[in-house]
Write a structure and sequence with these properties.
The chain is built from 2 helices and 5 strands. By secondary structure, the chain is of the alpha+beta class. The protein has one domain.
């Protein structure tokens, strides 16, 4: 049986600011809590770079499909920094809606 762990998570609301928190889960933060923090029902996990450190970036996978889309400037910048660091590109390099930075654990790097 896999034991639950606590993950450091920083919520990046589209309206600005940050909300540091911890979310439990067995293989990363549990999606039930993350859905509530992000205000969505489908999560995409991508990357972000902050101060030279890589994080998982949880975003609303269907964020661009809504009618009240709000650009998340901070998450977009962190996502673009990660893309540049990794030598990657994307056709639409912006993040819509709330996002969450999730600190990677040693287990994630195996």
């Amino acid at each position: 049986m896999t034991q639950e762990k606590s993950y450091n998570v920083v919520i990046l609301p589209a309206s600005g600011g940050i909300i540091p928190t911890q979310v439990t889960g067995t293989d990363g933060p549990n999606f039930k809590d993350m859905y509530a923090y992000l205000g969505c029902t489908t999560i995409e996990i991508t990357g972000a770079t902050l101060n030279g450190k890589d994080y998982d970036l949880y975003i609303d996978e269907e964020g661009r499909l809504g009618t009240d889309v709000i650009l998340n400037e901070k998450a977009t910048q962190l996502f673009n920094d990660w893309l540049e660091k990794e030598g990657r590109t994307t056709m639409i390099p912006n993040i819509i809606g709330n996002a969450a930075l999730v600190e990677r654990t040693d287990d994630d790097e195996l």
